[in-house]
Design a protein that fits this description.
The protein is α+β, with helices and mostly antiparallel strands. β25 and β26 form a beta hairpin. α2 crosses α3 (227-235).
Length: 737
C-alpha cells in the first residue's frame, strides 16, 4: 500500500512486513496515498534502503479527501488537509455543490491522477468554515476513517431496548443490591462501567480481603451479530477528543442502560476475589449479578477522604469511609505484589486540554494521578488477570492483551546507551520487567533520570490483542486480558461473552462480521507481521492455527488496528488545538526541556504549556552538530555543547504550521549547565555571563565600543567560543616560544 509523505515522495508498505520501498516524487504523480500497487525495487542507497518504481496499480480504494475549497484564476480546486495526498484535486465548475470558497469540504474522486494530469473530484459534503468550533474533530474522524454515525438499523434496535432492568432480566443472577458497591471515576465521566467493594476476610489461615469488581453486563443487551454488535465491532473502541466522545455503543446503552449509575439497578458481571496479605489472588469466581450502586465518587473526593478520614469530604460520606479504607488496604497489598514481581512502573506526565465553549484552548494542565487512581487501577488489573487465567485454564479461545518484550535490536541500543552514560546497572540480552524497573529505581535521583526513563519506555513494544498468549511484559503477567471496560472496548465485550459461555459449559463462536475498511489496513498488516516476527517468540511453540483461532486472530488485529486509529485521531486533534493555541504566542519566550534528540534537531516541551516543538539543527548555532545514537544526544564538535533528553533550554516560538501540525522554536538561551559542562570537559574556566540570554547581532558594535563596565554580558555560547579561541591562541604562542 502507498504511504504518501508531505514532501512529495512516498513509500510502498509491503504486505510481507519487510522494509518499506521509497518512491521518488515523480513516481507519486500517478498514485495517491492508500492506493494498493505492485512495485519493483530498482536500486538501494548507501544505507541499504530500497528505492522502487510502480509497476501496476492493483486497487484504488474509495477514499474521501478532506480539504479547503479554493478558487484560483477561475479554477476550483481542493487542497487536501492531509498532506500525504501530494496533489490538489480539480473540481469542475458544476461539481462544487453549495460549497463556498474557503470552506472545508469532503471530496469524492471521479478521475484518478495520471502522469500528466491531476485528480478530479466533486464536493460530496460541506463541513463548514475552518474556524468553526469542533472543525478539527470533524476533519479528524473523516481523515482517519473513524465511524461517527450509527447505522439506522443500530439506532432502531437501540430504541427497542428497555429503559431499566426488568424482572425477567434478573433470573439466574446473584442479587448484590445490598452490597455497597460504588463507582470511582473522573469528574467529567458520563459512563460508569466498573464498581468496586472490599471487606476484610480470612484467606487461608491468615488475614486478607474479599474484593468485588462489578462490570457492566453489556453482553446481555448487545447480542452477537445484531446491528448494534456490527456497529460496535466496526468502531472497536470509543474515541476521546477534548469536549467530545465518539462512543462505541449508542448513548442509550453507554450512558443509560449499561452505565452503573448511582441508586438504580443494573446488570453486571462480577469478578469476586480473595486476596491475601501479600497481595496474591488466593481464589476467584465469576458470576452474573444484579447490583445497586450506593455512591458515585470522584478520584479527587476519594483521595481527600483517604488523606483525612475526619475531614469534610469524609463527614459527608461517613457511611462509606470504612469501605474506602478497606479498598486502600487491599490496594497497598496488591501494590506490594506488583513490586515483588518486578512490574514496570514509570511515572509519566499526562496532560489534559481545557477548552472554552467555542472549543478554543484555555489552558493545558497535567493530569495528576492520586491514590484513588492507583486504587482503581490495581483493582482492575486484578480482575483482568483473573479473566485471562479463567479463559486459559478453560482452554477456550479468546483475546489476550499481549505486550511483547523488547526486540533484540532495541535491547542492544538500550544496553549501549546505559553503558555510554555510565549507568552501573544494565539489562540482559533477554531482559525481564524487573531489570527495567531496577534500572529505573537506581537512576531516579540522577539529573538525567527523565532521559533514562524515556529510553526505557522507547525500547518496549506496543501491546496488541491476540488469541496467542505470550504474556504481558510491562505488567509482568503470564496471562492478561481486558475485562473491565465493555462499554468502550470491543475486546472486553468478547471476553465477557467467552466467560459466560464457559460458565454455561458452552463454546462461544465468533460471528461473521464485516471486513475491516482500508483506513487501518496498513496498521493491521504491520501488527500481523510483528506477531509472526522471528524475534517475538511465544513461550510455548504452537501448531498451525485452526480456522477458529485464525478468526480470533483477525478480530484481535482489527481491534488493535482500530485502537491505533483512535489514538492517531485523538493526537491529531490535540496537535491541531495546540497549534491554534500557540499561534497566539508567536515571538514569546519560554523555558523548556529537551524531550528527544534527532539527526535534524531537538524536540523541546515547554514547562508552562506542555506543548512540544522542534528546534531545528540550524538554530543551534554556527557549528557542526553530530547525533550520538548511543547517548541519544546532539553534540557540537567544536564547543562540545550537548543537547540530550532532559537538557533545560530557553526558546522562542518562531513558527506554527497548522496544516502540518508542527510548531518550530528558536533557541534563545543555552542553559548555564551546558556551557559549564562543555568548558569543564575542555579544561577551561567557566565563561563570564554564562546562562545569560543572547543579544541581538545589531548590539554587537555597541558592546565593542562601550566601556568595559557598561558592556552587556555575552551569551554563553559566545563566551565559550571566545574562551576556546583564546586558549588555542595562548597554546599557539607557547609553542612558538
Amino acid at each position: 500500500m502507498i504511504n504518501g509523505h508531505r514532501d512529495g515522495h512516498g513509500y510502498v508498505v509491503r504486505d510481507d512486513g519487510e522494509g518499506d520501498i521509497y518512491l521518488p516524487p515523480n513516481e507519486m504523480r500517478a498514485v495517491l496515498h492508500k492506493d494498493r500497487v505492485k512495485a519493483r525495487i530498482v536500486r538501494h542507497d548507501r544505507k541499504g534502503r530500497a528505492e522502487g518504481r510502480v509497476v501496476e496499480i492493483v486497487e484504488r480504494p474509495p477514499q474521501p479527501i478532506i480539504g479547503r475549497l479554493l478558487h484560483e484564476s477561475g479554477v476550483w480546486l481542493v487542497a487536501p488537509e492531509d498532506k500525504r495526498y501530494g496533489q490538489d484535486v480539480l473540481i469542475p465548475k458544476g461539481a462544487t455543490g453549495l460549497a463556498k470558497a474557503g470552506q472545508v469540504v469532503v471530496v469524492e474522486l471521479t478521475e484518478p491522477p495520471s502522469l500528466y494530469g491531476q485528480p478530479v473530484g466533486r464536493v460530496k459534503e460541506v463541513l463548514g468554515e475552518i474556524d468553526d468550533p469542533g472543525m478539527e474533530i470533524e476533519i479528524a474522524v473523516r481523515k482517519y476513517g473513524v465511524p461517527h454515525e450509527f447505522s439506522e438499523a443500530c439506532i432502531a434496535l437501540s430504541r427497542t431496548l428497555p429503559d431499566k432492568v426488568r424482572p425477567q432480566d434478573k433470573k439466574h443472577r446473584v442479587d448484590l443490591t445490598d452490597v455497597p458497591l460504588v463507582t470511582i471515576d473522573g469528574e467529567d465521566a458520563r459512563d460508569f462501567d466498573d464498581a468496586v467493594y472490599c471487606e476484610p476476610a480470612k484467606v487461608g489461615r491468615g488475614k486478607g480481603w474479599r474484593l468485588l469488581v462489578a462490570i457492566a453486563d453489556v453482553s446481555n443487551y448487545v447480542e452477537t451479530g445484531s446491528s448494534i454488535d456490527i456497529d460496535a465491532y466496526e468502531r472497536a473502541t470509543s474515541v476521546y477528543f477534548p469536549r467530545r466522545v465518539i462512543p462505541m455503543l449508542p448513548e442509550k446503552l453507554s450512558n443509560g442502560l449499561c452505565s452503573l449509575n448511582p441508586e438504580v439497578e443494573r446488570l453486571c458481571m462480577v469478578c469476586d476475589m480473595l486476596i491475601n496479605a501479600g497481595g496474591e489472588i488466593y481464589a476467584y469466581q465469576f458470576y452474573p449479578a444484579v447490583m445497586w450502586s450506593h455512591a458515585r465518587f470522584t478520584y479527587t473526593e476519594v483521595a481527600a477522604i483517604l488523606a483525612n478520614t475526619r475531614g469534610p469530604e469524609a463527614i459527608r460520606r461517613k457511611e462509606r469511609v470504612a469501605d474506602l479504607e478497606n479498598l486502600s488496604d487491599v490496594y497497598r497489598a496488591l501494590l506490594k505484589a506488583r513490586q515483588a514481581r518486578g512490574a514496570v512502573d514509570f511515572e509519566t506526565t499526562e496532560t489534559q486540554i481545557v477548552c472554552d465553549e467555542s472549543g478554543r484552548i484555555e489552558q493545558i494542565v497535567p493530569r495528576t494521578r492520586n491514590e484513588a487512581h492507583r486504587l482503581i487501577e490495581e483493582s482492575m488489573l486484578a480482575a483482568n488477570v483473573c479473566s485471562a487465567d479463567f479463559i486459559q485454564e478453560s482452554k477456550h479461545p479468546g483475546l489476550y492483551r499481549v505486550h511483547e518484550g523488547p526486540t533484540p535490536e532495541k535491547v542492544e541500543l538500550l544496553r549501549n546507551y546505559l553503558k555510554a552514560i555510565g549507568v552501573g546497572q544494565t539489562v540482559s540480552e533477554e531482559p525481564t520487567p524487573g531489570e527495567f524497573q531496577r534500572v529505573a529505581e537506581a537512576t531516579k535521583e540522577r539529573p538525567d533520570a527523565l532521559q533514562i526513563h524515556s529510553m526505557l519506555l522507547r525500547s518496549m513494544s506496543q501491546a496488541i490483542y491476540t488469541p496467542l498468549n505470550s504474556g504481558h511484559f510491562g505488567l509482568a503477567y503470564d496471562a492478561y486480558t481486558h475485562f473491565t471496560s465493555p462499554i468502550r472496548r470491543y475486546p472486553d465485550l468478547l471476553v465477557h461473552r467467552v466467560i459466560k459461555a464457559i460458565l454455561a459449559k458452552e463454546r462461544y463462536q465468533l460471528p461473521t462480521l464485516p471486513t475491516p475498511g482500508e483506513a487501518h489496513e496498513k496498521l493491521a498488516r504491520r501488527l500481523a507481521a510483528r506477531v509472526r516476527a522471528p524475534g517475538n517468540k511465544l513461550k510455548k511453540p504452537v501448531q498451525a492455527p485452526s480456522r477458529e483461532v485464525q478468526a480470533w486472530e483477525a478480530a484481535g488485529l482489527h481491534c488493535s488496528a482500530n485502537e491505533r486509529r483512535a489514538d492517531e485521531a485523538s493526537r491529531d486533534v490535540e496537535a491541531w488545538l495546540k497549534c491554534k493555541y500557540m499561534r497566539e504566542h508567536l515571538g514569546e519566550e519560554y523555558g523548556g526541556v529537551v524531550t528527544a534528540a534527532t539527526t535534524f534537531g531537538i524536540f523541546v516541551t515547554l514547562d508552562a504549556m506542555y506543548v512540544e516543538g522542534l528546534v531545528h539543527i540550524t538554530e543551534l548555532g554556527g557549528e557542526y552538530f553530530k547525533f550520538d545514537e548511543a547517548r541519544q544526544e546532539l553534540r557540537g564538535e567544536r564547543t562540545g555543547i550537548r543537547y540530550a533528553i532532559g537538557t533545560r533550554v530557553r526558546v522562542q516560538v518562531s513558527r506554527v504550521d497548522l496544516d502540518g501540525r508542527k510548531i518550530d522554536f528558536r533557541l534563545v538561551r543555552e542553559g548555564e549547565e551546558l556551557v559549564n559542562r562543555a568548558m569543564k570537559e575542555k579544561g577551561l574556566p567557566p565563561p563570564p555571563g554564562a546562562g545569560v540570554p543572547a543579544k541581538a547581532s545589531t548590539k554587537r558594535a555597541a558592546r565593542k565600543t562601550a566601556p568595559a563596565s557598561e558592556r552587556a554580558p555575552r551569551s554563553p555560547i559566545q563566551a565559550l567560543k571566545t574562551a576556546v579561541k583564546k586558549a588555542a591562541t595562548k597554546k599557539s604562542r607557547k609553542s612558538r616560544r
